[in-house]
Design a protein that fits this description.
Helices cover about 25% and strands about 10% of the residues. It has 16 helices and 18 strands. The strands form four sheets. Strands 9-8-4-3-2-11-10 form a seven-stranded parallel sheet. A six-stranded antiparallel sheet has the order 1-12-13-14-18-16. Strands 5-7-6 form a three-stranded antiparallel sheet, with no helix packed on it. Strand 6 and strand 7 form a beta hairpin. The chain binds alpha-D-glucopyranose. The site of alpha-D-glucopyranose has 9 residues, from loops.
Length: about 575
């Protein structure tokens, strides 16, 4: 039995208009401080991105998404933004930004920037003013300041916990406390205050006017909060249904903010796009992906899944169905700057799962805690499965988000000493959560040199020696390398892309998935350990290079050319 899944509310062919660029784009995430260092200070920068524009073009991506490059004290890798409308001087200037934008646009690559609206840096001018202005001042109303509890107000207003560990309140010199869902250096904004609403509109216009094509919205499910007294306890918060009326998370009224942003986006031609980072239950994702809200939302289900046919199929079916509830397209992600790289996850034993199917611990966390020794990482198996998973993903309808370095088959770096760590989750959890530095190590561009071609100075996070084997220079033009596989896959994908539908074909095996796109492009993935025969020869592309054969080897994805190209 086959089943055709229509992934979207309107088919591209329903209208004469070409589909908007973002619907099936390949978006490459750049973590700017670790991509390329042009000025030789050990920190990646905007000019570094410009210098690698040809690399991005040859890779064949449709867009890049830049993680924050704004002025920041780097308490959370730049997600503590001190000024939303400038470039961190260590990364360059606004002129450098314009040059980069022009270089990427000249190569047909769109640019999406990260916007961080739930919190800012404690160095932000409005927060500094709030500190100076004192309790009861209008300046403090832009944030969430409260009196403490207990004698002299020495205890926090509530027992709420921050996402990085420790209390979610921080006490200032005059004795008041402010709310920070993340690090203490990231005070939450009061979204009931009109100043922030106006200020963010200004920011969106500032970047849109410069020519930025879209925005990735950080923790989009937070922002608005019902903080009427009495405030609930953490246990009460945890027990509240997440139905849109929760006090602090995924509230329906956050979409009032996004409706205003939507007007801004749609006032440009072409409309600016947005994608929500919303960690919410999947039935609430369509709210963020709707045309009156942000228009697209990340789905992290593949990123959380094991390398397992049944899980992958369930994730795809469910998310195409969800995308169909809006007029958006689905998104797919295997790696980003917050998780252990997928080559490494797939080379480690699958994590234990709770009864609800969620992983009991973050995949790879124990291995990271052991400094990369226990359990043993099977690098080859992980890399092989990662290539197969990537080709599986790139064949799906919708847009795929790639994270810098995955095209080099990079593994997570586990051997970073405590003194070199930067991630606040490491410090705030007392080392219990090792943090995310291991996927943020600067990219290896060449085999030699103090920073493997990343720059001229020792990099801000140490590169282990094995990274040299993954260098761009090492893989470029080498048949069978992961980099060449990505390049060929992105080129074929562009050629073969078609309507956003998918049909599952029977395989007779539980560990093999086979789907067909409307133009006949077929994707077969063998998750298990035995070869799988297919009726047509595997054309042009396979994660194992078994091109031209009628057999798909274990842990491999093969693409079968479309019978017709649209
Ligand atoms: C998002 C970012 C993460 C950051 C957090 C706080 O989840 O992806 O890197 O630490 O928001 O801004």
């Amino acid at each position: 039995m086959t089943q055709i899944q229509h992934a979207h509310g309107t088919r591209a062919s329903d209208s004469a208009e070409p589909a908007p660029w973002w619907r099936q784009a390949v978006v490459y995430q750049i973590y700017p401080r670790s991509f390329a260092d042009a000025d030789g200070d050990g920190l990646g920068d905007i000019a570094g991105i410009t210098s690698r524009a040809d690399y991005l073009s040859a890779l064949g991506v449709d867009a890049v998404w830049l993680s924050p490059f704004y002025p920041s004290a780097l308490a959370d890798g730049g997600y503590d933004v001190a000024d939303h409308r400038d470039v961190d001087p260590r990364l360059g200037t606004l002129d450098d930004f314009d040059t980069m934008l022009a270089a990427l646009h000249a190569r047909g690559i769109k640019v999406v920037v990260d916007i961080v609206p739930n919190h800012c840096s404690d160095q932000h001018v409005w927060f500094q003013e709030a500190l100076r202005a004192g309790r009861g001042s209008p300046e403090r109303e832009r944030f969430v300041f409260r009196e403490g509890t207990g004698p002299g107000g020495e205890h926090p207003p509530t027992d709420w916990l921050s996402a990085f560990g420790g209390p979610a309140w921080h006490r200032v010199a005059d004795g008041q406390w402010y709310l920070h869902h993340f690090a203490p250096e990231q005070p939450d904004l009061n979204w009931d205050h009109p100043d922030w609403r106006e200020d963010f509109v200004r920011t969106l216009r500032f970047w849109s006017d410069r020519g930025v094509d879209g925005f990735r919205v950080d923790v989009a499910h937070m922002l608005t909060k019902d903080l009427t007294e009495p405030l609930p306890s953490q246990a009460e918060l945890d027990a509240m249904p997440k139905d849109g009326l929760h006090r602090t998370i995924d509230r329906d009224d956050v979409h009032d903010v996004y409706a205003q942003w939507r007007e801004v986006f749609n006032s440009y031609d072409p409309p600016r796009t947005a994608v929500a980072e919303a960690w919410v239950s999947s039935d609430r994702i369509p709210l963020y992906a709707s045309e009156t809200s942000l228009g697209q939302a990340f789905n992290f289900d593949l990123l959380i899944a094991d390398f397992d046919a049944e899980q992958f199929r369930r994730v795809v079916t469910h998310n195409l169905e969800l995308a169909g509830r809006t007029r958006s397209s689905s998104t797919w992600v295997l790696s980003n700057h917050d998780v252990v790289r997928h080559a490494t996850r797939y080379g480690l034993p699958a994590p234990e799962r709770r009864p609800d199917g969620e992983p009991a611990v973050k995949h790879g966390m124990e291995w990271l805690r052991s400094g990369g020794t226990d359990p043993r990482l099977d690098r080859d198996l992980g890399g092989r499965r990662a290539r197969a998973a990537t080709l599986f993903m790139l064949g799906l309808p919708g847009s795929s988000y790639l994270y810098q370095g995955e095209e080099l088959g990079l593994h997570e770096v586990a051997d970073i000493s405590d003194g070199e760590r930067q991630d606040p989750s490491f410090f705030r959890s007392g080392g219990e959560d090792v943090g995310r530095d291991g996927c943020r190590v600067p990219l290896p561009w060449s085999r030699e040199g103090v920073a493997l071609g990343f720059g001229e100075a020792s990099p801000h996070l140490p590169q282990p020696s094995w990274m040299a084997d993954h260098a761009v220079e090492q893989q470029s033009g080498v048949p069978g390398s992961t980099l060449e596989l990505y390049r060929r896959a992105l080129a074929r994908r562009r050629e073969w892309q078609c309507e956003e539908d998918l049909e599952w074909l029977p395989t007779g095996r539980e560990d093999v998935l086979h789907y067909r796109r409307p133009n006949g492009w077929e994707v077969v993935t063998v998750f298990g350990d035995a070869d799988h025969a297919v009726s047509r020869p595997v054309a042009l592309l396979s994660s194992d290079d078994a091109v031209g054969s009628r057999v798909v080897p274990p842990q491999t994805t093969a693409w079968i050319a479309p019978s017709r190209t649209d």
